[in-house]
Structures
1.
Amino acid sequence: MTEQTELPLDLHADYGWFHIMKPRLVGGLIGEIGETAWAVYTIIKAHADHRTGRSDPSQERIGELIGKSAETVSRATKVLIEHDLLKQTKKGRHKEYQLLESAPLIDRKSGSPEGSADFDYVPQEFANQLRALKAFIQEGAPLGSGMTLNLTVNLVQQRDHGTVNLQTVQLSPDLVNRDDMRELTRRLRMLSL
């Protein structure tokens, strides 16, 4: 029989994780923005505050973690902003980031993209945001705060030889949830979801 000795260990397991939406990976985004911008995106996301979604690692720190210079990180950050993956603000001498999520809205019958639901990434609220989006699409339930629907509506004019006009309609929660907008919202959902 072996004798067990207690070791004086005071351990902590770091098991943090974050969300990455599948369309970001399989939609060709990495090829579009480049591997460096993707690495910067994941480092910023890994540093996001669970309650607010805000992230503030310095560009030097990001550069250390991905093996690039702060100047390269700065260029990659600009690419992320241009692709609506994050917003950047100044916080004193430092930069603060808010990551942005976008869930594609796909027509069930045709499989064609009809728009997107866009919202700030807040880890603590992420599952609730997706549930609210699903409830809105399926049942017309009120859309959660901080979420915007961007629907592409195709309008065909009967005159002028069938000219097709494309418009993007942006529906914010306060607009979608107004009583006088519920019918419009219902019709838009029938057209595009």
2.
Amino acid sequence: MFAREVTKWSREVVEQSHRQPPLTEKELSAYNEIFFIAQRTQVVAPLIWYPFVVLTLMIVARLSVFDNWTWPVSLVLIWSVTAAWALGSAILLRRAAEQLRETALNDLRRFRLLGREVAAKRETFDELIAEIRDLKTGAFAPLTDQPFMRAVLFPGAGLGLLAVGQRLLDVF
């Protein structure tokens, strides 16, 4: 998406990412793209909870505690496809963000090599590369902090607790 050409950023964004020595808009574009992706995915990523909460409620509603429902194969298949679709979307989002980070890092390394005659500019590129590499928000967060990992574990933990509760009710 961003890697094909230089993104034109508004004056506020360019001024906010201003560096000394000054870098061109083309040189700062990769840096701005990465932080834009981190901010947007930080807002969007928690939405992965909704499909898994709904799926969990639908599965809980069909438990034998409430009624003697059957589990047709078609229904289980629909729930599996829905869960796989939601999980796949979250994984693809993270993978695309990581690919964009690699592209941005490669661009900044290339700009660093092109500007090797100016030591201050090289240091500025080193700072940008370090900031991007150390970024851990949004889609760039560690896998254990990703909302889709928690969303996948939520239904399993909830169903496990319900199964234990059902067994305890059968014992007493």
3.
Amino acid sequence: MRDNDSVYLFAPLNISVSLHSLLPSFHPQNILFCEVADGISAYGIASHRHAPEIEQGLTEATGGKEVLINFTPHLMPMSRGILESIYVKLAPGKAAADLKAHLQEVYEKEPFVHILQGGKVPETRHVRGSNNCIINVFDDRVPGRAIIISAIDNLVKVRLKGRRGGGREGGILNVMVGH
């Protein structure tokens, strides 16, 4: 990345991820899908609890150069999954293809991380029921910028170390910082 303080993250999340933090008396049996269907809503605006840890991980990954992100998750009426759209500025002389090649090299031996070929776009339905994180990198229409799209099923129970799919094994930001 060129400007470490220019990372913008849009992450639509399934209902199960966010309702428990939005509603103080959350009980899954008391929430009907139809109550959230046909709508999308932002939450944790300018104050999401995971923003500091994402920034910390990215700062560590850049050798200590402070990275600040803009992150506002959105509640989506879907039963599982997270789709992330991440907008970054590239280093001078670098292109989205360079970033993609770097990710392919770094994660070629990771069994759950898959960098898609060509213009294939990750979708949450492509990872449903798996511990996979699928990623692709695209040129932005603005020169010197790239868009990273990733998808995970955050409700999968991981057989490795007993963590959930949305934990350290999931999500492009975790993948980018080596977790």
